[in-house]
Amino acid sequence: MGSSQTESFEKMIGAISRLLKNGEMVVTGTLSPLPAAGCLLAKHTHAPDLEPMLYGDPENRLSEGLHEFFGVAQKGKVDVFFLSGLQIDRQGSINLSVIGDYDHPKLRLPGGAGSAMLYSMSRRTILFTMTHTKKLFVPKVDFVNAAAFDGETRTPWRRGGLSHVVTPLCVMKFDEDRKRVVLDSLLPGVTLDQVVENTGFDLDVAGREIPVMEPLTEEEQSALRGPVLEKMRTIYPLVCRMIWG
Predict the structure, then answer these.
(1) How far apart are CA 120 and CA 73, in angstroms?
(2) For the chain, how big is the Rg over CA atoms in Å?
(3) Minimal CB count within 10 Å: which of 53, 64, 109, 222?
(4) Does the CA dihedral 41-193-89-141 come out positive or negative?
(5) SS3 readout for the chain
(6) What's the rounded Cα separation, in Å, for the pair 164 and 76?
(7) Can you tell me the distance from the alpha carbon of 174 to that of 190, in angstroms, rounded to the nearest whole number?
(8) How far apart are CA 149 and CA 92, in angstroms?
(9) Contact 148, 163 (CB under 8 A)
(10) CA-CA distance, 12 to 166, in Å (whole number)?
């Protein structure tokens, strides 16, 4: 993997880290290497009392696997969880089931795997994607596996919803009043035009000055390529070899 792509992933990890607050219990599920690294980076820098629960961490074995993992969320103990989707729309809904018509789809996928419950039961959810395209960020998802908020009727057990979306190009945030995703900041080296051209819905950028995320500090860079990477190699060894060699 080229150095520019490594730097792109490191910027995403830095962006995720800075969204986490000291003392929060932060949980990552399967196939979430960048959020896991973001949690560890936060703990090694500005959030020493962060409580990361990283699925696949050999030092944090779950005696009952996913059953225990979901149980923690259903008890209302999770402050932050991470989800992704093959499609994400303007209202923060995610699609993990089908592309196209449900009965005659162009592509059928495994499904939500508990994402609806986790989206509801976590106090904040951060969405992340490894790509940023119009095919992914669509005006309306073809199928809703999990929604950022309730409709007219609020489910009594709902604790939270969408907080932010982190991509290789930018950080978006959820506007709670208008119930929509808007652009929050650009990652270093990315232009506003790049983000707009690769997003399938209006990001509410008209008349706004969009800030650029500060580059990783020396402290963050040192922690990321030191103790964070050392730990990550025990959880996601193949991904680490792909990104950092």
Answers:
(1) 9
(2) 17
(3) 64
(4) negative
(5) CCHHHHHHHHHHHHHHHHCCCCCCEEEECCCCHHHHHHHHHHHHCCCCCCEEEECCCCCCCCCCHHHHHHHHHHCCCCCEEEECCCEEECCCCEECCEEECCCCEEEECCCCCCHHHHHHHCCEEEEECCCCCCCCEECCCCCCCECCCCCCCCCCCCCCEEEEEECCCEEEEEECCCCEEEEEEECCCCCHHHHHHCCCCCCCCCCCCCCECCCCCHHHHHHHHHHHHHHHHHHCHHHHHHHHC
(6) 20
(7) 21
(8) 8
(9) no
(10) 7
CA distances (Å), 85 to each of 60, 116, 209, in order?
26, 12, 28
Q: Which two tokens stand for residue 75?
A: 């008890």
Contact 50, 39 (CB under 8 A): yes
What is the chain's pLDDT, residue by residue, as a tens digit (245 residues)?
667 888 999 999 999 999 999 999 999 988 899 999 999 999 999 999 999 999 889 887 666 667 788 888 999 999 999 999 999 999 999 999 999 999 999 999 888 888 999 999 999 999 999 999 999 999 999 999 999 999 888 888 899 999 999 999 999 999 999 999 999 999 999 999 999 999 999 999 999 999 999 999 999 999 999 999 999 999 999 999 999 99
Residue 92 CA: distances (Å) to CA of 71, 88, 125: 24, 6, 10
Phi first, then psi: what are they for 235, rounded to 5°?
A: -105, -45
**Residue 78 burial (C-beta neighbours within 10 Å; 0-12, 13-18, 19+):** buried
| Structure tokens that stand for 71 in this block | 């149980």
